[in-house]
Amino acid sequence: MSKLQGKVAVVTGGNSGIGLAIAKRFVAEGAFVYITGRRQSELDNAVASIGSQAKAVQGDVANLDDIDRLYAKIRDEKGGIDIIVANAGIVGPQPLEETTAETFDKVFAVNVRGVLFTVKQALPLMNDRGAVIVISSMATAKGIPGYSAYSATKAAVRSFVRTWTAELKSRHIRVNAISPGPIDTPIMDSQAPNPEAADKLRTSFAAAVPLGRLGQPDEIAAAALFLASDEASYVAGVDLPVDGGVTAIG
Ligand code: NAP
């Protein structure tokens, strides 16, 4: 039997990379999935590739009106939500000396504020016994040059998971994080000035992984499926590393 049959899920940043892989996997397991993102063209392509059990709602997670519009639509169409994957994120790498207030605020607005309000605004619609998954990062456990703001945002969302597990326990909503290692998605390209530099970045990340390679988005989707499903019924408040061994032994 499918693991998410009849469930309604939201995946922010579901038009690319890890979020798209999660949306596809959830639909394959019987869920109806709402994906979000800012780029309408990428949302259209994503829905075309996922099929009729997915719907796109364009929006910016840093904008509360956009979040409210998403949930108003889901309330009208489905009446409730079982699973939220707060996945949308950006890196905005800058060495400490070059860090600007503008970039710092933007990375925190998307990666921290966006995650908090994506979950908070959904609570009136969340069904009891639901699951919340936030995407943290191996970066919280490493000192990666240029990642001051990014790594701190991912430590913040890991912390949310602890607080929310306690706050939502009476509703039996399980909250967990996944910390991916380096995964081969467009986020790698977003950190490099040109394709050659992006290739170099991929090679240097892969070299730091005990398994000797980048991860694939599907490998994060498999972990998200586990945490979203009843297979993880006694798993709460954890941060699951899916990183080829980087944080355990790298
Ligand atoms: P990606 O392919 O670049 O996807 C990022 C997604 O977030 C896109 O769908 C993007 O869509 C969306 N997004 C960005 N800003 C947004 C905003 N303000 N509002 C709504 N959506 C927004 O990168 P990815 O690797 O799949 O990243 C997914 C998550 O995994 C991120 O939180 C990232 O930090 C985390 N992560 C990735 C890695 C890795 O190595 N790939 C490692 C650890 C953690 P639009 O651009 O259309 O808005």
Automatic annotation (TrEMBL):
Q: Which SMART domains match?
A: PKS_KR
The residue ranges of the Ketoreductase domain are 7-181
Q: What is its EC number?
A: 1.1.1.47
Keywords on record? Oxidoreductase
Tell whether Iron-sulfur is among the UniProt keywords.
Answer: no
Name the Pfam families for this protein: adh_short_C2
- Molecular function as annotated in GO: glucose 1-dehydrogenase [NAD(P)+] activity
Q: Which family is this protein grouped under?
A: Belongs to the short-chain dehydrogenases/reductases (SDR) family.
Q: What is this protein called?
A: Glucose 1-dehydrogenase
Organism of origin is Paraburkholderia strydomiana
